[in-house]
């Protein structure tokens, strides 16, 4: 989870979603109360679950470690194959807009000629 969260694409996507969520809460008073209630509920469930799950996690720790190592290797291979993963969302959007603009310009030129 830490490795996935450290990817620029994931981190910037989370930042975008977080900013949109905060903006929506600020601009929509009706949604703010619903979001606040949902956040409190999630926090309560998380705290209750953590105490119950801790003994199970201690028992499964060797298996979790092995799965984590396997997932990290898979993530590394995926990162090698997908050049988008280390890029932030803003850069991907910018690159996509540039590519589309150039393709549209090429099509316009081909149509006009």
From TrEMBL:
Main location: other
Location(s), subcellular: Lipid droplet
Organism: Ploceus nigricollis
Protein name: PLIN3 protein
Domain of life per record: Eukaryota
Coiled coil (UniProt feature): none
Keywords, in A-Z order: Lipid droplet
GO BP annotations, alphabetical order: lipid storage; positive regulation of triglyceride storage
Gene: Plin3_1
Pfam family, one: Perilipin
Listed GO CC annotations: cytosol; lipid droplet
Family: Belongs to the perilipin family.
Record bears the keyword RNA-binding: no
């Amino acid at each position: 989870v830490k490795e996935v969260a450290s990817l620029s694409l994931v981190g910037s996507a989370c930042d975008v979603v977080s900013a949109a969520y905060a903006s929506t809460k600020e601009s929509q008073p009706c949604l703010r109360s619903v979001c606040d209630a949902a956040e409190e509920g999630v926090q309560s469930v998380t705290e209750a679950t953590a105490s119950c799950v801790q003994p199970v996690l201690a028992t499964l720790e060797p298996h979790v470690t092995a799965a984590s190592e396997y997932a990290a290797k898979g993530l590394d291979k995926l990162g090698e194959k997908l050049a988008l993963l280390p890029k932030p969302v803003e850069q991907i959007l910018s690159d996509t807009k540039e590519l589309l603009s150039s393709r549209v310009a090429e099509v316009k030129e081909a149509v006009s000629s």
